[in-house]
Structure formats: C-alpha cells, structure tokens
Automatic annotation (TrEMBL), chain A:
This is Glutathione import ATP-binding protein GsiA. It comes from Aquamicrobium aerolatum DSM 21857. One of its GO terms (biological process) is peptide transport. Belongs to the ABC transporter superfamily. Glutathione importer (TC 3.A.1.5.11) family. Part of the ABC transporter complex GsiABCD involved in glutathione import. Responsible for energy coupling to the transport system. The keyword Transcription regulation does not apply. The keyword Cell membrane applies.
TrEMBL record, chain B:
This is Peptide/nickel transport system permease protein. The keyword Cell membrane applies. It comes from Aquamicrobium aerolatum DSM 21857. Belongs to the binding-protein-dependent transport system permease family. Coiled coil: none annotated. One of its GO terms (biological process) is transmembrane transport. Residues 96-293 form the ABC transmembrane type-1 domain. Pfam families: BPD_transp_1, BPD_transp_1_N. PROSITE patterns: ABC_TM1. It is a multi-pass membrane protein. It is found in: Cell membrane. GO terms for cellular component: plasma membrane. The chain crosses the membrane at residues 100-123, 135-162, 174-193, 232-254, 274-300.
Length: 614, 307
C-alpha cells in the first residue's frame, strides 16, 4: 500500500461485528484516503452494508456489538476511534463529518415533512443556523445537485418527487455540512440506468468540488469500474482483496475476485456474434477457480416455423384519476400499439426502463390484464376467439417467472407442493407416485437435489428459490416462459448460473422465452432478438446484433451509453443525460401519439424520431 | 375538501336517522309507558290509561312521533320527559357535558400514558422493560371495568376515604372514574403504539434521521411518531365511540350524572323522549368524531391531503 499517514482519513483495523451469536464481519482491515473513492464490493451476505453501518455506528440500533477492532477516523488534528466513541459524540460526527446515502430513495425521506424541513434540520443541528438561514442554504444545496426550481421544491413533500429527484435530495442532505467522508450504500441500485448515470455523475463532480472521500458500497462491478479509485472485495464477512481499481480488474489475485469478475456480463462482449452465447462458468472448487460446463452458440430459434406467439397492435390503458361520478378523467397508456412475434426456441428480450410497459405486456399475454384493443395469437389461434378450455390450456403453455423469488413461493407450503401444484391444477398426472417422480425430475433438471422436496422456501437461498420457481414453471410442460426481471434480484455469480440454466432448458425442451429486463448486458448475452420499449412503444426491434451493434434509435443509444461498463480503462465515454422519463398519464381524449415503425434493414425496425443524426 | 365534508355530513345524517329509528321501534316493543307511570296507584281504569297516553302524545301515529323526535335534534326541543315532565333538553344539557368530560379525560389520560410507554417498549424490544410493559398491559386488559371500579371505590372511597365514592362534585370526583376507564384503554393502546412504532422504526427514513446525527428523542418523537399518527388517530377515534357506549357501566358504579345514567333510567321507565334524544345525540357524537378523524388524516399526512 502506498498510502502515507498524512492522507489517511479512515482506517478500519481488525474490525469484527457480531449480531447476537452470529459473527458477520471478521477481522476486517482497510483504509480510505482523503479525497478518493473506495468501493466496497461483494454479494449479498458479504457484510458490506454492515461495514458501512458500523462506521456510522448505526449498526448498534440493530443490535450489533464489536468484539474487537477499531475504526480510526482522522478529524482535524487527532484521530478518533469510532468504535469506542459514545453515541453522543457519534451524533456530532454523523451527518456532519461522515454522511451517508442509502439504497432506497423512495423510502429514505420522511413522507410527512417537506423537503425544505428535512434539509434545514441537519443544517440547524450541526451548523447552528436559524430556520431561515438553513432554508436559504437548502435551496443552494438543491441547485448544487442540479435540481431545477429549487425554491419551490423546498415546500414540497417527498411523494411529489420521482426516485431520481429524491436521491438527489438525499445527496444534498448528505453534503449539507461538507462531510469529509460520504458513505454511499448502493445509491443507484433501485434506479433506472439513465437516472443512475445522472446520479453517478453528480456524486463524482461534487466529490471533486468538495474534496471529500467516498466509500461506495455496491454489488455492481460496472459501477465500481466507473467510480472507484480503490477497491475492497468482501466475501462472507471478510476482505479477500484490496487494491487500486485497475489492478483489481486487470489482475485479480484472489480466486473469489476472479470468479466474481468472470461472472459479470459485460456490455459489448458479444460484438461480432450472430447468436446468443452459452458460456462456461468459472466457479470456485475448494479455493481454485475452475471452468465448468460448455461454451456454445445458442442456435435454438426456428424461424422457418410459424411464430409461436404473435402480439398484434396491443393497447393497454389504466384509469388513473376519476371524477365525482367515477368516470375516468386521466388514463395511463402503458402499452401503446405494440406488435411483435416470438418463434419456437427463440428468446425475445423486452428492454426498457420503469414505466416502459414491459411488464404489462407480459401480464397481458398471461391473461392477467385485459387489453383495450389488439390481439394475441398463440400457435396461430386468436386469444379473443378461444374457448374457456383453450384459454385454460394457454395458461398451461405459457408460464411466468417473477422477479422476486422470495415473494413468489408460498412460505407455508413445501417446495414439492408448489412445484406439483400446476401438474394437479391442469390434471397432467393423476397418480401421486407419478407426480412425485416428476417433481423429483424437475428438481434435478434445475440443479437441485430431489431429496429437498419436503423443505420450505425459507430454507433456500435466493438463487435456489429462483431455481424452484423455474422448476414450477416447467412442471406444466410450457412452450413459452415469460421471465419478468427473473435475474434482477440475484447476485452476479448466481445470475450467471441461472442464465446458463435458462439456455440449457431452451436447448433441451425447445422453449421460447419472453425475457423482460432492464439489464442491457444480460439481454445482449441471452437474446436472439431485442425490442426496446419506451413509454409503452417499441422504439427499436431487431436481432441482437442489429440493436446492439447497428443501433439506429437515439433512445437505444442513450440507454446503452448509460450502462456502466465493467472496465475502469473505458471511463468517460458517456453521453451526459438530462431529464426524466416522461409520465404516460394523460387526460382522456389527449391520447399519446404513435410513432410508426420503419424497417431500415431486413428485420430491423426503428420508430420514427426527430434525431438530426439520422 | 368541502365536497368531502359535505359527503360525510350526509352520511352522518343517514346514520343518525337509522340508529334512532331502530331504537324507536325497539323500545315500543318492550312495554307501555302508561302502565309504568300508573304502576302502584289504585283504581286505574282503561280510560285513565288512554288519557295518560294522550297526554304523552302516544296517540299519534308512530311515524309522526318519530319525526317529531328527529326534528328535535334540529330545534333542540325533544319534548318533556314522561317521568316528572322535565324538558328533555334540560336533562341532556346537564348529562352531556358530564359524559363528554369523563370520556375525554379518560382518553387523554390513556394517550398520555400509552404513547411514551409504547415507544419505550418498541425501542427496547425483547428486553426486560419491554416484557414488563407488555405483561402490565395484559394485566390491565384482564380487569373487567366494573370490578376495577368497585375495587377502587372500596379502597379509596370507603376504606381510606381519600376520594368521594360517587357523584360528580369537583376535581376529586373525576379521579376514580377517569382512572378506571384510563387503565383499561391504556392496556390496549400501549400495545397498539408499540406495534405501529416497531413498524415505523424499521423504515429507511428513521435510519436516515439517525444518520443525520439527530438525538434519539428527536428521531422517535418527531420523525417516527408523526408517521405512526394515522393508525393511532384511527384507533383513538373508534375508541372514543366505544367509550361513549361503554361508559354506562362506569356511570352506574360511580353514580355519575351522565348520558349513560340518563339512558339507563329512561330504558327502565320506557321514557321514549329521553331515550331517543340520548341515542340520537350519542350517535351524532360518534359520527362527528369520525369526521374529525378523517380531517385529521389530511393534516398529518400530506399524501392524503393531495386527494
């Protein structure tokens, strides 16, 4: 380490943290230097958030104690040990010398107080300002985080702001007293990529302006590459590696870091390939990284066959506001005249940010949502002309996998019961022994031990639960699986395994996927064709290579440029983005315009737009 | 907001009409007031009874009688009591304040005790102080209110002679009835405050408030409590309604000259005008309290204010 004693701001020495009898951090050592960004990375359960909460001594409120170690924080002249400090002295440091921003901007602000009050509070507390001084300073801070119309924002309440705006308010609040250290705990994880890009830029610029150090807690290697000077890699409560960011990415020393980096999907890594790629995985065997499985092109799509699913001019609206007599006055157009088709064995990705209508399309196909107009054709048959029995049959042929594997399994039923349920509901097998055998086969198919049938969901990890959800989806022998952000809640190493499982199942069972995602890198890796959605309309539709390598629509380009690239040598190629995603809610009668699609090359459709470059 | 209040007032009127109608019908099925009044006196003929009924206005059709009593609410004239002939509005204007002050002091006492205790229990969840508060509230819940009231009277009113055992005369006479009702309300309220507080304390914005460096009391009483307010106000509002109903027993034990005692006596004497007036006014009170609760939502929570 090259750090000298003079620029060392924070030193964590041999820190151990315990909750009750379980030790979650074990002899952690790392340093943060003044004015630099240290990224603490790790997957769930690595202890990275507990580390940040321990520095703030907020972990105490959750019942943490510290059997050993020190955290030395350099104040103006002398260092103070944060672990042995009492809570009153911690209160003078918190929000003042060390400030923090959190993952969930939607819930970080107190809903019953105005933005102005919440900002002024911290200034009055630490800077001894009067209310009016504090409000004036709050207005300046809101301008600092590039929020327009700061004065009127002061009197507004959190629910009137979007997630991106709230996170900016949080940053303003954290920076109010010019802290020496800012701890950012997954500050952009809950945000859309374009908003994430804006927030990351603001943090970076303000850091340079105020000369503060930043501890950036994240699981996203792309964000690490974008932001960090130094990296601390954590695994199961211990630091496994520490070093400058270039070194960590170019020559990771610890096997876990190697595995982690190899699992990260990298945007652009598929350049020049026509088909999705199923890649061998690096996994830890003992403590040696080993390559597991085959690498092959995913050549499963059959374009000579008629399409399995056709979505024709689909229009879905929701009533948002009603008048005195219950008639709709404002409606949101979630899906605005969308058409596409999926072929047997094909993966079609729907990508877009929140509010783009991608999940609504999935729900409509699954008959969970009635469209206003347009139709869905499965296997050549129109959904609107199907009989009850045929609709029921469709529910069997089309299965859904949700984002949250914790919420989508009944906690009071064994996993065997959950997996067998579709088989019983659709009467596929009636003999209990046959059902049991089938459930066992399915568990084996998704890489779980068939002996686990009698266990309950809480006994499994997130990745295992998602495998159980996949097994349940497979149990009715579907032909199309709608995977709605099915990988988003998983750690990258688990995510890589589940991606391979998806691709193997596609090859063996000839499945088609409608893959709904916001993650461009995963989409690039898995999809045959891609549809880019924005405010309910398709902006661009084409093969993976067409959309990612011959990008034609400015929105697709913006989306791609906003994705952080997991390569620290490729920073600053970013197009600066301003503004928010517009709302799709409009007054009845004022319907949003439909941009017609133009075919610019065979199979590559682009919505009309007014971009000067085109 | 005006439209909202207007809608609520219409609902309130409807509730009062329905409740009083049910009561009017029900009480007429329980017996003849003329017989009750003439009880004990000898030589009553059928003609005397008819004369008594005429004097009470009972010869009119039911719908007219009912309509008259309903109009009384608007004109503040409910006619005269069958027993003694006192104007009903005089009886009410003495009894209503007695009941309302008792109900209010009990509720306020309970809120003042249960909020700090509930918060203390939530903050020290699982520790011994939390256990003590929870056990204490369970004990409080287990007391039947009439038993508790009787025991208090025996101890402080009869044996120790510290407090007046019954009646309403000055500040001291409030202590025992308020305490009785307050203890029983507090037992449930502590648990309610604790549960809502626990939920709120898990919120991210509480963590943020602590990360600002705010003191624990600011975090709890400023940031957390206001967010607990919606469920608490709802419950306290409902409780006030229940309190007005449940006060009858307490008023009997302490011989409190309130609406409960008035209603009790009126039922025994088939005193229609008094009973109907009492019921209508009490239901009106309950509806009004709920209206106030709805308006209070908007004051504490800006997200509701918008609509």
């Amino acid at each position: 380490m090259t750090s000298s004693a003079t620029d060392e701001l924070l030193r964590v020495e041999n820190l151990s943290v315990r909750f009750g009898s379980s030790q979650v951090i074990n002899k952690l050592i790392f340093t943060v230097r003044a004015g630099r960004t240290t990224a603490v990375v790790g997957e769930s359960g690595s202890g990275k958030s507990v580390t940040s909460m321990s520095i703030m001594r907020l972990a105490d409120m959750a019942g943490a104690d510290y059997p050993e170690g020190r955290i030395l924080f350099q104040r103006d002249d002398l260092a103070i040990d944060l672990i042995s400090a009492d809570q009153p002295s911690m209160r003078r440091i918190r929000g003042n010398e060390i400030a923090m921003i959190f993952q969930e901007p939607m819930t970080s602000l107190n809903p019953v107080f105005t933005i102005g009050d919440q900002l002024a509070e911290v200034l009055m507390l630490h800077e001894g300002m009067s209310k009016s001084q504090a409000l004036a300073e709050a207005e300046r801070l809101l301008t600092l985080v590039r929020l327009p119309d700061a004065k009127s924002l002061l009197t507004r309440h959190p629910h009137q702001l979007s997630g991106g705006m709230r996170q900016r308010v949080m940053i303003a609040m954290a920076l109010a007293c010019r802290p020496k250290l800012l701890i950012a705990d997954e500050p952009t994880t809950a945000l859309d990529v374009t908003v994430q890009a804006q927030i990351l830029t603001i943090i970076k610029e303000l850091q340079a302006e105020l000369g503060m150090a930043v501890i950036f807690i994240t699981h996203d290697m792309g964000v690490v590459a974008e932001m960090a000077d130094d990296v601390v890699v954590m695994w199961k409560g211990e630091k496994v590696e520490e070093g400058p960011v270039e070194q960590i990415f170019a020559a990771p020393a610890h096997p876990y870091t190697q595995v982690l980096l190899s699992a990260v999907p990298r945007l652009g890594s598929m350049e020049g390939r026509a088909l999705p790629l199923r890649e061998a995985l690096t996994v830890l065997e003992g403590d040696k990284p080993t390559l597991l499985g085959e690498t092959r092109d995913q050549d499963t799509a059959d374009y000579s066959a008629p399409p399995l699913l056709q979505v024709e001019d689909l229009l879905v609206r929701f009533d948002i506001k009603k008048d005195f007599f219950g008639r709709a006055t404002h409606r949101a157009t979630a899906v605005n005249h969308v058409s596409f088709e999926i072929y047997p064995g094909e993966t079609l990705a729907l990508v877009g940010e929140s509010g783009s209508g991608k999940s609504t399309i999935g729900r409509t196909i699954q008959q969970l949502q009635e469209p206003i107009s347009g139709d869905i054709r499965f296997d050549g048959k129109l959904l609107s002309q199907m009989s009850r029995a045929e609709r029921q049959r469709l529910r069997r042929d089309v299965q859904y996998i949700f984002q949250d594997p914790f919420a989508s399994l009944d906690p009071r039923k064994t996993i065997g019961y959950s997996i067998a349920e579709p088989i019983r509901t659709h009467g596929l097998l009636d003999n209990n022994r046959d059902i049991e055998r089938r459930v066992g086969d399915l568990l084996e198919r998704v890489g779980l031990n068939p002996n686990m049938v009698g266990r309950y969901p809480h006994e499994f990890s997130g990745g295992q639960r998602q495998r159980i959800c996949i097994a349940r989806a497979l149990s009715s022998k579907p032909r199309l699986i709608i995977a709605d952000e099915a990988l988003s809640a998983l750690d990258v190493s688990v995510q890589a395994q589940v991606i391979n499982l998806f691709m193997d199942l596609q090859k063996d069972e000839g499945l088609s996927y409608l893959f709904i995602s916001h993650d461009m890198a995963v989409v690039e890796k898995m999809s045959h064709r891609v549809a880019v959605l924005y405010t309910g309309q398709i902006m661009e539709l084409g093969t993976r290579a067409q959309v990612f390598e011959h990008t034609a629509h400015p929105y697709t380009r913006r989306l791609l440029s906003a994705v952080p690239v997991a390569d620290p040598t490729k920073r600053d190629r970013r197009v600066m983005l301003e503004g928010e995603i517009p709302s799709t809610t409009r007054a009845v009668g004022d319907e949003p315009p439909v941009m017609p699609l133009r075919e610019i090359s065979p199979g590559h459709f682009v919505a009309e737009h007014s971009d000067p470059q085109q | 907001m005006i439209g909202f209040i207007f809608k609520r007032l219409l609902q309130a009127a409807f509730v009062v009409v329905v409740v009083s109608l049910v009561v009017a019908v029900a009480i007429r099925m329980t017996g003849d007031p003329a017989l009750m009044i003439s009880q004990g006196s000898t030589g009553i003929t059928e003609a005397d009874l008819v004369r008594i009924r005429e004097g009470l206005g009972l010869n009119e059709p039911f719908i007219v009688q009912y309509f008259n009593s309903l109009m009384g609410l608007l004109t503040w004239n409910f006619g005269n009591s069958f027993v003694g002939g006192t104007p009903v509005n005089l009886l009410i204007s003495k009894a209503l304040p007695a009941t309302l002050t008792l109900a209010f002091t009990s509720l306020i006492l309970s809120i003042v005790i249960s909020i700090p205790l509930g918060i203390a229990a939530a903050v020290s969840r699982g520790k011994w102080s939390d256990q003590m508060i929870r056990i204490g509230s369970l004990v409080g819940l287990s007391f039947p209110n009439f038993w508790l009231a009787t025991m208090l009277v025996l101890l402080f009113g009869v044996t120790l002679r510290w407090l007046p055992p019954s009646g309403m005369a000055g500040f001291e006479s409030y202590i025992m009835p308020t305490l009785t009702m307050g203890i029983i309300l507090t037992a449930t309220n502590v648990r309610l405050v604790r549960t809502t507080m626990l939920e709120t304390l898990n919120s991210q914005y509480i963590m943020v408030a602590r990360a600002k460096g705010l003191s624990e009391s600011k975090v709890l009483y400023k940031h957390a409590l206001r967010n607990c307010a919606i469920p608490l106000i709802t419950y306290f509002g409902l409780q006030f309604g229940g309190l007005l109903g449940g006060i009858v027993v307490i008023e009997r034990v302490f011989n409190w000259p309130g609406m409960g005692t008035l209603a009790f006596d009126a039922v025994s004497a088939r005193d229609y005008p008094v009973l109907q007036a009492v019921i209508m006014i009490l239901s009106l009170m309950i509806v009004l309290v709920n209206l106030i609760v709805d308006i209070a939502y908007g004051l504490v929570d800006p997200r509701i204010r918008k609509e």
